[in-house]
């Protein structure tokens, strides 16, 4: 070995060292030996293994991590495509997140050989995957991948009621109407979560293929906070049609108000938080146009509206303007509303309506002191109005927000 001179004073010293018997060469050799000894071989001379058992293992991990889809893949489907596997080892960590940092939950199973997500992915979204596995000797192997899900051509959304932040009555179901008919209801249900605080069992029920309602067994307790989590983005609701919503909304249950209309007695008793606060004379459906029996929920409020028989199958039998204090009870046109065209003697004495429940009132809601105004001002969306002793059938649960007219066992039964 020869040590080449370098420029400057060090070079002169290097040349002097070589003339004096190669002491610098020996020193350099000693340094090299020392560096070799510190390299972790422990004198084994093999360059492999753990040496004396105290050094660092330099042997490569036998574990093989595979990520599907492969790094850089585009147009990935949202269900069933993502998985991470480990060969000759076990997965110890799998982290998946979208471009905003939102994590994708999943589970390692089959003894550490596979990881899969708990739910579908969102569409048109970029994801990163970082996975680590270790072999039988504890040596780690890692892999990273990025992929992007496809952009669907056909989509659907769910229109929900009540609205976010709304305070509603104890009878208010959570109702979702979809913009397209659903042929895979199980996939859609799995993407919807409804919870209550305080907790209570909540079940969903389908009406046809485009409406899904949720309710507890009995009316909500006042003060309950209900939360809806919609994770429809990427769900295939029907072949080739995917959801595009991912949002959370919440509403609160206010005080309890349940009003019972007795069509035979022609009265309505208003019960607030378990206490009767007022009995009001009413008029309900005439003998030829009786009022439905059953539990009905107020779904709309209109201080003044127009009622035309053409819109609900009564032809030109009536067209009434400036109808005051109207609150909808059914999709088919049942309202509880103010009535200014019948004489005062009618209320509490005769049933003369086309199926609605009428309370004495003034035209255009101008008089704030009428029975109808009193009831309107004290009612909110989600309050319950029960009609009994009418010579009509019970209202169907999907005719309005009237889920309570179905037995609980039937409501939660598989469909």
TrEMBL record:
Name the UniProt record assigns to this protein: Ig-like domain-containing protein
CDD domains per record: LDT_IgD_like_2, YkuD_like
Residue numbers spanned by region Disordered: 1-21, 38-57
Associated pathway: Cell wall biogenesis; peptidoglycan biosynthesis
Pfam families cross-referenced by the UniProt entry: Big_10, YkuD
Compositionally biased region (Basic residues): 12-21
Swiss-Prot/TrEMBL keywords: Acyltransferase, Cell shape, Cell wall biogenesis/degradation, Peptidoglycan synthesis, Signal, Transferase
Domain L,D-TPase catalytic stretches: 257-388
InterPro entries: Big_10, LD-transpeptidase, LD_TPept_cat_dom, Transpep_catalytic_dom
Ranges annotated as biased composition (Gly residues): 39-48
Signal peptide: 1-37
């Amino acid at each position: 070995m020869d040590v080449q001179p370098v420029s400057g004073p060090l070079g002169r010293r290097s040349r002097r060292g070589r003339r004096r018997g190669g002491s610098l060469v020996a020193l350099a050799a000693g340094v090299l030996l020392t560096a070799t000894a510190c390299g972790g071989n422990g004198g084994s001379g093999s360059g492999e293994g753990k040496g004396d058992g105290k050094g660092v293992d330099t042997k490569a991990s036998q574990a093989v991590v595979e990520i599907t889809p492969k790094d850089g893949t585009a147009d990935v489907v949202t269900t069933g495509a993502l998985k991470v596997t480990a060969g000759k080892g076990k997965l110890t960590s799998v982290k998946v997140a979208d471009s905003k940092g939102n994590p994708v939950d999943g589970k390692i199973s089959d003894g550490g050989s596979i990881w899969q997500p708990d739910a579908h992915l969102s569409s048109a979204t970029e994801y990163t995957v970082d996975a680590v596995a270790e072999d039988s000797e504890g040596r780690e192997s890692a892999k990273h991948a990025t992929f992007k899900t496809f952009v669907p051509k056909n989509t659907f959304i769910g229109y929900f009621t009540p609205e976010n932040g709304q305070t509603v009555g104890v009878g208010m179901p959570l109702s979702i109407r979809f913009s397209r008919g659903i042929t895979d209801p199980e996939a859609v249900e799995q993407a919807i979560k409804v919870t209550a605080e305080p907790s209570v069992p909540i079940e969903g029920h389908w009406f046809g293929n485009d409406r899904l309602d949720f309710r507890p067994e009995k009316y909500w307790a006042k003060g309950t906070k209900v939360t809806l989590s919609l994770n429809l983005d990427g769900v295939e609701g029907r072949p080739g049609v995917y959801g595009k919503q991912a949002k959370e909304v919440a509403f609160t249950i206010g005080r309890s108000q349940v009003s019972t209309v007795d069509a035979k007695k022609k009265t309505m008793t208003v019960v607030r938080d378990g206490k009767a606060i007022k009995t009001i004379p009413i008029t309900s459906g005439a003998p030829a146009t009786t009022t439905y029996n059953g539990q009905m929920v107020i779904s709309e409020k209109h201080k003044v509206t127009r009622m035309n028989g053409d819109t609900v199958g009564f032809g030109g039998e009536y067209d009434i303007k400036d109808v005051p204090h109207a609150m909808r009870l059914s999709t088919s046109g049942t309202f509880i509303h103010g009535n200014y065209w019948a004489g005062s003697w009618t209320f509490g004495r005769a049933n003369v309506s086309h199926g609605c429940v009428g309370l004495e009132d003034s035209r255009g809601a101008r008089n704030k002191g009428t029975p109808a105004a009193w009831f309107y001002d004290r009612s909110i969306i989600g309050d319950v109005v029960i009609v009994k002793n009418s010579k009509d059938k019970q209202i169907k649960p999907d005719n309005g927000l009237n889920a309570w007219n179905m037995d609980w066992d039937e409501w939660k039964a598989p469909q």
